[in-house]
Amino acid sequence: MALAEFELIDRYFSPLIAAQNRGDDCAFLTVEPGCELAISTDTLVEGIHFPVGADAEALAWRALGCCGSDLAAVGAQPLGFTLALTLPAVEDCWLEAFSRGLKAAVQALGMPLLGGDTTRGPLSLTLSVLGTVPAHHALRRSGGQVGDQVWVSGHLGGAAAALDFIEQPTGAEALLACYWRPRPRLDLGLALRGIAHAAIDISDGLLADLGHLCAASECGAVLDAAQIPAHPQAEALLGRTRAQELALIGGDDYELCFTAPTTAAPTVTAVSEQLGLSLHCIGELVAEPGLRWRNGDEIGPLSRRAGYQHFGSESC
Ligand code: ADP
Ligand code: MG
User: Fold this and answer.
1) The pTM is what?
2) Which helix (H) or strand (E) holds 245?
3) Exposed end of the chain (fewer CB within 10 Å): N or C?
């Protein structure tokens, strides 16, 4: 992008970067003694991770929300992020909207822009987020213990349900907000340090991500059918069965799934009240590997292939 690259960076990105990190070959951060640096990178490609022709302002928020969620999952305090942007062309209108959305997300999430890279090519964004956790206090996928309760934050399936309404959003605004403006649960991640045994963010769907947590913790889980918090607007617009199915397998929710001993339940409830965020106990970790559902006395397998149709049935 030769000359235009520097003008573009100066106009649209440098104003978002703190003076001490602007325009040098690297950004500089001070990491407190006794802290570990948490780092995660995500790439979003047009046509794969977001629709072709997506609104630039919303896209910027979504990118930072998705990537910031990895810091929430490990209980890290955000330090900031870098942005590698690949653009097919320099369009002022698009860049203005994009940097406006990015500025709003930076302020709302408290995650400063540190630097990045700008190149020409098919539209894609790569963000690396950085945060700190006191040494040995990060929430990990592998810490789950048999007998732990399994919790999820907020409601699930809203972002997946939004995909049916991207072209015609009227009446589905709450779902569209789940998709375009994910709120990484950074405060929850911080509050769960020392309380949760294990945690993961739900980016690929509850079944997939809880499956990862169970595999890392070398255990399985049994979920209570009636306790899965499907998104209320998905239930209203798509029906309970479809909403429950999306709550189990839909991606892009960026809520947290965590496990904690039953003795911690009152503390988890206090965290929920303090943050004004609903936290739902949806089941427990068990020794037998794999995921199963429970509905009263009935119990059955739970996977993308087997059983979630039954799990989501109207009788739940
Ligand atoms: P280099 O060639 O040494 O990699 P660049 O010309 O790519 O340097 O970048 C110059 C400065 O602009 C760096 O401080 C870099 O972090 C910043 N920068 C470039 N692109 C972006 C971007 N998309 N967002 C934020 N900062 C950027
Ligand atoms: Mg560069």
Assistant:
1) 0.92
2) helix 240-249
3) N
